Amino acid sequence: MSFEIALSGINAVNTQLDTISNNIANSGTYGFKSSRADFASEYAGSQATGATVSSQTQSIAVGGGVQSTGRGMDAAILGRGFFVSKDMSSQSLYSRVGIFSVNKDGYVVDGSGRHVQGYAALPGSTSLGAMGDLKVPASQMAANATDKLQYVANMSADWSAPTVTPFDAADPQTFNGSMVSMVYDSLGTQHSVTQYFVKSATSEVTVHYSFDGAVLPATTTTLHFDVNGQLSTPAAPVALALGTPAGADALTVNIDYAGSTQFAGEATTSANAANGYASGSLSSVQIAEDGGVMVQYSNGQKQRAGTIALATFPDEGSLTPAGGTSWIMSSESGTPLFFTPGSGLAGKLSAGALEQSNVELTGELVSLMTAQRNYQANTKVISAQSQMMQNLMQAI
């Protein structure tokens, strides 16, 4: 019986050594979670029969260090949750490794080429779309015509009405100041809108306009200020009809002067911002901290292509390890619950970073020495039992 007991100890230690070796081998693997071999005694009735490894405990809940990479498609999970991907057979795999890229077909994939799962973006809405394969649009971003211009300035109370009249855009003596704003038509062609400011009364400034250098005839706006220097009228944005650029739709821009003032001192401009933009082609893709897959275009615009999903489990320690530093669902782990990063039970993301292995190398080396000692002790039992049997046979 001693042979069998010692042999069971050797077998258990061998399993422990496999576990320790795997931990040490993956001490530099991103997103790896260490495991521990749990020993248990064995009995046949009241007779001791040795030891066995009863379970393998995974330290999934223990986070690894976060290493900054600066790469836009890297992301680390801070807290609970797993990235979700699907392989060619549509099997779902769960991983802590946030190394992503966009393949030639526009799909967001992980380091093993599996399709990353998330919520589609709904144009014009902040709501989440259906969950599935995340894909980056390959088409050119369409141009967006300007329809709003915010202009906030101080029209100096020290201005004097021009002595040279009438207004002439070519003669700076007929106006007190001017400002150029850039706008876009429906084709994405850029145009200039110039405002010319003329002090016309004590608390009044008249604005004349030109479009691409051509003065808009009979198109003026009068700004009125109260005794505190605050704009009183117009109270609403001014609709400025700019005509119809060649091949494009008619262009009308609503200029909002709210917040403009008439104080003494220097004339200043604090806001001159128009919406609209030219068309653009895809230039880069980045992962945002809220899980957004953000597409950067050559026109400077950003667009959300979707949002990465994170999965949590009732018993994540019971997930079954799989290749590619990932896990698959088991009957003991329970079914996954899906969230966006930072919501529900899921942790937040650290963009441009990766989670390191949570293996504590010093502790593993100590465990390795302990396992070696236990292995040697069990072999001593076999050696002693063998010697005793030899002595008995010689005595007979």
SSE diagram, text form:
Blueprint: H1 2-25, E1 35-44, E2 47-58, E3 66-68, E4 75-78, E5 82-86, E6 92-95, E7 101-102, E8 108-109, E9 115-121, E10 128-133, E11 148-154, E12 177-184, E13 190-201, E14 204-211, E15 214-225, E16 231-233, E17 238-241, E18 252-256, E19 268-274, E20 282-287, E21 292-297, E22 302-308, E23 310-312, E24 320-322, E25 326-328, E26 337-339, E27 348-351, E28 353-355, H2 361-395
Parallel strand pairs: 11-18
Antiparallel strand pairs: 1-2, 3-28, 4-27, 5-6, 5-9, 5-23, 6-25, 7-8, 9-10, 9-22, 11-19, 12-13, 13-14, 14-15, 15-16, 17-18, 20-21, 21-22, 23-26, 24-25
Helix pairs in contact: 1-2
| Proportion of residues in helical segments | 10-25%
Give the count of structural domains: 3
Query: Main sheet, how many strands, which sense, barrel?
Result: 11 strands, antiparallel
Task: Give the H and E element order.
Answer: HEEEEEEEEEEEEEEEEEEEEEEEEEEEEH
Based on CA inertia axes, which overall geometry fits?
Answer: rod-shaped
The percentage of residues in β strands lies in 35-45%
Count every helix, treating DSSP H or I runs of 4 or more residues as helices. Answer: 2
Q: How many beta-strand runs?
A: 28
Mean pLDDT reading: 94
Q: Tell me the quaternary state.
A: single chain
Q: Helices and strands: which structural class?
A: mainly beta
The span between the termini is 21 Å
